[in-house]
Write a structure and sequence with these properties.
The protein is of the alpha+beta class. It contains nine helices and 19 strands. The chain is elongated, with a radius of gyration of 32 Å.
Length: about 400
């Protein structure tokens, strides 16, 4: 479909045209030749600006470049590539406008809401109906701009703009509007590109305080079977010991061997593995307040931060489960790729009041290695008092006052 270029008077152009009409009307009414000549001279810049604006927009090709996903609250840099296919004329002061809107109609969120309403008996209120109407008829849109000072003929430039997306979820970009007012600013020419893109905004990643690492280490202390203190050749320096059959010659400490006359090798401290199973309980009542929604987002942010921390430390077998309307579980080595995949799922996790928490705990324990510490992150008080293995369960209520000693946003 060919692009349709349009031209309108800018605000300055409207003022200019008003003065021109006044002078032209006075010239006609008074039959004053000097005013007629002045009106003609003022018409020329208006026509020249219109011609240059329409010519500058011809032959422009614009393309947006988006990353796959970005954490919430971090600055996102979007690149706009502008190419000029004309042979002889450059384009100046090309402005590209982009619109960003959060997708409020994600299928998972709709399914979770329908599930909660079916089980709890949905009674619509005026506030809930108005919220739905406002979301679907008047979505909150953010406008961003990227300016290219000059696009040379048979060349291209890359303009950028930066924006912060504060909430997790899926965002849609587009359409693109390309415009210019060069050179006089009297005429505004533009065309619209039906070019859309999507990006996934993962949960906000905060900062874990030293209490988090201390609690993980405390649970592993004394477990000599799974985490021996002295290893062969991994970790930091531990000490010296006599050489044993099977030791590599690279471990020989030659200075001690020469001093004592006994072959001595270096012994290293074996690094501890932190096998963990995390269960996210995205509990949210059917008619939730803003405070309840804030606790839900805090629980999801803490889960995302814990995932990134464990992936950064490495040497960990990790199981992660979500106790939503439908239980989901992922298990594997805590690596950046594993973290990337789970964060993409957390970006779209909806809150629910009827999640299968017990099923998620059983599934996480089944996928995690034997003896792994189970951590439940929730926005409500503990709900597993009858669990027979509750001594090996650590429940984190993000609404408790102690959460500030464990985790901070920002």
């Amino acid at each position: 479909m060919p692009l349709r270029r349009r031209a309108w008077l800018s605000r300055e152009g409207v003022y200019y045209a008003g003065v021109l009409l006044f002078i032209g009307g006075a010239a006609v009414l008074q039959s004053y030749n000097l005013l007629v000549a002045l009106a003609g001279m003022m018409t020329a810049p208006l026509l020249l600006n219109w011609r240059l604006v329409m010519g500058s927009l011809r032959g422009l090709m614009v393309k947006r470049r988006l990353p796959e996903q970005v954490p919430a609250g971090e600055a996102l840099t979007v690149e706009i590539r502008i190419d000029n296919v004309r042979w002889w004329m450059a384009s100046h002061l090309v402005l590209v406008e982009d619109w960003i809107v959060r997708n409020e109609s994600d299928p998972r969120e709709i399914s979770a809401r329908r599930h909660d309403r079916t089980l709890a008996g949905f009674r619509p209120t005026w506030s809930s109906l108005w919220r739905l109407v406002r979301q679907f008829l008047f979505p909150e849109r953010t406008r961003a701009e990227a300016l290219a000072a000059q696009v040379p003929p048979r060349g291209g430039v890359t303009a950028t703009y930066r924006v912060k997306l504060p909430r997790r979820g899926r965002y849609r970009f587009g359409p693109l509007r390309v415009s210019t007012r060069y050179p006089l600013g009297l005429v505004w020419g533009h065309f619209v590109l039906e070019q859309f893109g999507e990006i996934l905004v993962t949960p906000h990643v905060g900062r874990l305080l030293p209490a988090w690492a201390e609690l993980l280490d405390a649970e592993q202390a004394g477990d000599q079977r799974r985490h021996p203190q002295r290893g062969l050749a991994e970790g930091d320096y531990y000490g010296l010991r006599p050489w044993q059959s099977g030791d590599s010659t690279r471990w020989i400490h030659w200075r001690s061997t020469a001093k004592t006359g006994i072959p001595t090798v270096i012994q290293y401290e074996r690094q501890r593995n932190r096998d963990v199973a995390i269960v996210l309980d995205p509990w949210l009542p059917a008619d939730a307040s803003d405070e309840a929604r804030g606790r839900l987002e805090l629980a999801i942010s803490l889960s995302a931060t814990a995932l990134e921390d464990l992936a950064f430390r490495g040497h960990t077998q990790l199981a992660f489960a979500v106790a939503g309307a439908e239980t989901a579980c992922w298990a594997g080595s805590a690596s950046p790729m594993f973290c990337h995949d789970v964060l993409a799922e957390l970006a779209l996790v909806p809150g629910t009041a009827n999640g299968s928490l017990e099923a998620a705990i059983r599934q996480a324990r089944g996928e995690a290695p034997a003896g792994a510490r189970l951590i439940v992150i929730s926005s409500r008080q503990p709900q597993v008092s009858a669990d027979p293995d509750r001594d090996n369960l650590w429940w984190i209520d993000v609404g408790a006052a102690e959460i500030g000693e464990l985790f901070q946003l920002g």
